[in-house]
Amino acid sequence: MTITHPTPIRLLEKALVMYVGLLMVSLLIIFAIEPSIYTTTLWPGWVPTERYPWPVLLFLAALLAFLSMLIYGILHRWRWLFWGLLLAWSASVIQIPIEGLQLLGVFPNPYPIWYSLFRVGVGFTELGFACWMIQSYRQQGVWAMRRNVEQVSHLVRTELGLIEYRSVGQGPVVLVLNGGHTNCHSPLGHETFFLAQGYQLIIPSRPGYGRTPSSTGKRAEAFADALVSLLNLLQLDQVLVVGISAGGPTALQLAGRHPQRVSKVILQNAATDGRYARGIIRFLTYLFFNPVLEGMVWAAFRSLARIAPQSALKCLMWGLTCLPIDQVLSAMSPDQRKGALAFLQASRSGSGFLHDIQHHCGDLGRVTAPVLVITSKYDGLVDSSHAIYVQDHIPQAQLFVSEAESHLMWFSVHDHEIQARMQAFLQLGSMRA
C-alpha cells in the first residue's frame, strides 16, 4: 500500500504561529496580574512607585513587537529565523534543569513559584519544537523548501518495513541502489543513459536515508530481503540491479540471497570487500556524519557552495580522487563541474551512512547473474581492490577499469567509455522472464 501524509511543514508552521500567539497572550496576562516580574527581570532590586511603570510598558511593547515579527517571519519562511529559533529553543536543554534547581531551592529564585513552573513548561514546549524542526529539516530542508524541487516519490509498507522509492521511465526494470549520503531524489549520473536505453528505473532510498527508516534494514542483507518484498508488492519477477559506491554490498546481497530475482548486476565504484571506510575515514564518519551533526555539516557545505562554489567543490573532492584536485577539476567541462557540485549539494547522511560503513557483501559464491564491475582508476574513496575482490570471487564477473579521474565517474571526460561498456553488457542476452 502507498502511504500519504499531511504536509508536515504546514503543521509545523501552524503550531509555531499558535505557540507564539499564546506566548504573547501569556505575557499580557502576566503583566496584568504580576507586573513585578518584569521589573525584576529588567532591574533586580528595583521597587517602582507605580504598578505599571513606563519602562516596563516599553519593554512589553518591544517584546510583543518582536514576537509579531517572529510570526511574520515564520509565515514567510525566513531562513535565518529557522536557524535562530532552532538554536534558541535547543538551549532549553540548559534552561529546564536550572529552573528545576531554582524550584528545589538549590539556586535563589527571584520569581513566584507559579511563574517558575510556567517557564519550565515553556522550556519543554520549545525543546519539543526544536526536535520537530530538526526532524523536518532532515527530511525536507529549511522550512521544507527542498520538497518543491524534488520529484514525486512513493512510501510503501512492505512485509519487512517502509521503503521510499522513485520510479521513472517505462520498460524492463533497473533497480538502482544509490551510494552514501544520497536518497531516491538525489541526482543519478546515468539516469538519462538508462532511460535512453528503454529501461524503467526504480530508485529506493536505502535505510536511514530519505523517508526509509533504519528499522527496514540496517544491515545490507536485511535490506536486500526487504527489497524482495518491494519487488513482490510491485509485481516484478526479476530486475537488473545497479549498485553504486556504498550501495554495492546491498546489490551483491540481493543477487546472492535471491539469485532468481536478479538478471544482471552493474557495480559502479562499489564498496564490496568489507574494508570500506577504515581508519581516518571511519573516524571522520562518526565525527561529522552522525545523525546529530550531519545536517549542520551539509548545511555549512551548501552555504560555502553558494559563496565560493569552486572552493566548496575542492573541499569535498580531496577524498574522492588520488590525483591533484586542480588536475581533476581542469579535466571537467563547466557543465560537469556544475553537475558535480549539484550532486554534492544534494547530499544528506541521515543515519544511513553509519549503517553503510558496517555493510558486507556476503557470500559471493551464491551470485549467479552476470556482473559488470566498473572501477575508476584514480578513485580516492573506493580503490580498485574492491572491484578485484568481486572479480576473484565471482567467475562470471567482468572488470572494466575506467580512466575516470575520481569517485564521481559520471563527471569525467571518460564517461562515454563507461556508457559504451554498460551498453555492450546490457545487450548480452536479455532479461530472463
Automatic annotation (TrEMBL):
PANTHER family: AB HYDROLASE-1 DOMAIN-CONTAINING PROTEIN, HYDROLASE, ALPHA/BETA FOLD FAMILY PROTEIN. This is AB hydrolase-1 domain-containing protein. Keywords: Membrane, Transmembrane, Transmembrane helix. InterPro entries: AB_hydrolase, AB_hydrolase_1, AB_hydrolase_fold. The keyword Cell inner membrane does not apply. Residues 172-408 form the AB hydrolase-1 domain. Gene3D superfamilies: alpha/beta hydrolase. The chain crosses the membrane at residues 16-33, 53-73, 80-98, 113-137, 283-301. It comes from the Bacteria.
